[in-house]
Amino acid sequence: MAYDDSYKFKKVISIGIVSELTGLSQRQIRYYEERKLIFPDRSKGIRKYSFADVEQLMDIANKREEGVTTREIRNEMTKEIRQKMLQGQMNAHFRFRA
């Protein structure tokens, strides 16, 4: 049986639970959303997060403790996304199958 981690990406966790899991305040979590570092789903005005979002928030919090600015974190995230997109385009062009 293959391991399926799709549950990690389902947006089902409320901001209160995320706050408890991460140790971040709800205000900090909303701030990271405002800074475009995290992208929760919204249903009837209620934010919903995934386990992957919780991991991302922990990574952000650790970087902030090290003195990294939110702008630097966002720039790093953008760079990683671009690299993944480029790799995907190259794989598609050369018909590479992982």
UniProtKB/TrEMBL annotation:
<dbReference type="InterPro" id="IPR009061">
    <property type="entry name" value="DNA-bd_dom_put_sf"/>
</dbReference>
<dbReference type="InterPro" id="IPR047057">
    <property type="entry name" value="MerR_fam"/>
</dbReference>
<keyword id="KW-0238">DNA-binding</keyword>
<keyword id="KW-0805">Transcription regulation</keyword>
<feature type="domain" description="HTH merR-type">
    <location>
        <begin position="12"/>
        <end position="55"/>
    </location>
</feature>
<dbReference type="Pfam" id="PF13411">
    <property type="entry name" value="MerR_1"/>
</dbReference>
<dbReference type="GO" id="GO:0003677">
    <property type="term" value="F:DNA binding"/>
</dbReference>
<protein>
    <submittedName>
        <fullName>DNA-binding transcriptional MerR regulator</fullName>
    </submittedName>
</protein>
<dbReference type="InterPro" id="IPR000551">
    <property type="entry name" value="MerR-type_HTH_dom"/>
</dbReference>
<dbReference type="GO" id="GO:0003700">
    <property type="term" value="F:DNA-binding transcription factor activity"/>
</dbReference>
<keyword id="KW-0678">Repressor</keyword>
<keyword id="KW-0804">Transcription</keyword>
